[in-house]
Amino acid sequence: MRFHAFGLITAVLCSYCSTVASFAQPPKPNVIFILADDVGIGDIGTYGQQTIPTPNLDQMAAEGIKYSQMYSGASVCSPSRAVLMTGLHNGRFNNGNGVNLRDSNVTVAETLKSAGYQTAAFGKWHLGGSGASLPARQGFDEYFGILGAVDSWDHYQPNLQRNTSASPSTVIPVANNFDNGNPRYTGDLFTDEASQYIRAKAQTGQPFYTQLNLQLAHFDLEVPELEPFTEGQSWPLARKIYGSMITRLDRMVGDVLNAVDDPNNDGDTSDSIAANTLIVFASDNGTHIEPAACCKGNHGPNLGVFSDDAHDPEFFDSNGQYRGWKRDVYDGGIKTPFIARWAGTIAPGQENDSHFGDFADFLPTVAELAGAEIPIGIDGESYAHVLTGTTDETDFQRDFQYFE
Fold it and tell me: What 3 state SS string does the chain have?
């Protein structure tokens, strides 16, 4: 009788322990990656920029951690994005600046989808525009943006695309004529869509992965208005536009942070999902120094403020203390601003200058955080413990970092 009673008590206790254990499991974090285009590490206030205001990125760093030894995936757009998406290093993609993802590639989106995440991408894709390379064939439930590279040079691009998991091999053309028949500034449009997606998913309780690939500050040099740099300043117009593009980029980051902090957008942050959302900001490579004739897009109606002149990275010290810029494998071409915020998990106000990682490490890192299986054969290593400060940084080991 006592044996049965003990067995019953044990069973009840084990059931209770199981319940406690299940409650103790932290929820899978939402993950948001904001990827800027050709923004130098020196363009951001928290990294030393003193002329261009970037209050939202500076606040994001104050509320989280900024890394000064983090590298992108490559020194130019497409392969860098491929490294971020697949965890494979730059040398695995021998396609110059026109990488097309393959069916055999396992992406961040596919990895997180396998762990129960909903996935969406907005903005510049630049990883192929047909077949297996389409976003929905690479794990994204929803995609809205610009698939091609040259089209993305135009910040008032009239021709956009959708691609969804409901019909993953189909590209749906979307006319960008939301502003009285004129195209909207695409960065504004993509940020609005991403913010709406985040606000909607915040209500569901299901974990999500959102990638916002902004075109700023890639050529063309064009912006709806000069802010805060005015016509009265004695700078060349191209400098005013570039500074205004960085400031506008910062405001887009602020819009995403607001969507996380106040999903209902009613001023009450009691519904905030910040405590369960990892937000990362980075740039795909260093600041650009394109000749003006290189990158003039189809910018169609002469909207906003436009300049044919080239960006001068020395004017704002866009590459900071580092040598080189986009297309160089010096630090100025491959080192990226890298800021991460995760309220309650990442201690605020951190500056890390000892951890050397790059875009290949992002996939295994978020896979570990999400409890997903890390794809076999990738080059990146998880730095989840470095990000969260749970163990000593020396535990992070990379045999090499490869750029070409």
Answer: CHHHHHHHHHHHHHHHHHHHHHHHCCCCCEEEEEEECCCCHHHCHHHCCCCCCCHHHHHHHHCCEEECCEECCCCCHHHHHHHHHHCCCHHHCCCCCCCCCCCCCCCHHHHHHCCCCEEEEEEECCCCCCHHHCHHHHCCCEEEEECCCHHHHCCCCCEEEEEECCCCCCCEEEECCCECCECCCHHHHHHHHHHHHHHHHHCCCCCEEEEEECCCCCCCEEECCCCCCCCCCCCCHHHHHHHHHHHHHHHHHHHHHHHHHCCCCCCCHHHCCHHHEEEEEEECCCCCCCCHHHCCCCCCCCCCEEECCCCCCCCCCCCCCCCCCCCCCCHHHHECCEEEECCCCCCCCEEECCCCEEHHHHHHHHHHHHCCCCCCCCCCCCCHHHHHCCCCHHHCCCCCCCCC
